[in-house]
From TrEMBL:
It holds the Pfam family Rhodanese. Transmembrane segments: none annotated. This is Rhodanese-like protein. It comes from the Eukaryota. Residues 48-151 form the Rhodanese domain. InterPro entries: Rhodanese-like_dom (IPR001763), Rhodanese-like_dom_sf (IPR036873). Gene3D superfamilies: Rhodanese-like domain (3.40.250.10). One of its GO terms (cellular component) is mitochondrion. SMART domains: RHOD.
Amino acid sequence: MYALRAALRTPVRTAPRALSTSAARWKDAWASSPDMNFTEFNKHVRSPNDEVLLIDTREPDEAAISPIPGTVNLPFSKVAEALAEGNNPGKFQNDFAFPKPAYNQKIVFLDRAAKRSESAADAARKAGYQNVRTYGGGVKEYQENAHKHHE
């Protein structure tokens, strides 16, 4: 009888639930192409929504000189610490003036020339973020192309 009671008190580990087929396809479709081109990025800039978060990883003084509409600023020097699992969402909101992204949030990182954005995306993936991409052209390419499209 004692063995039975002990067995009943033993926690049972269950396997993690698998993503549904449609959720897996959605994740794979988004993250399968890590670099975003100008056309796709510009679509998100011109029609911002809560589904995709555009994060500019330049330092605040750089981002202030040539801001990209619809982006939020999370300096590269702060990305790994800010997105770490233990970072309090309230502190994140205070420090960066936007809510800490959910782990399933679609995120696009960009910077001046796309070097820091790749490292920021890697840091986000290591912190548990799954739906992470970069705008490969960086701010310089975006501004050049955006100017051409407005002429």
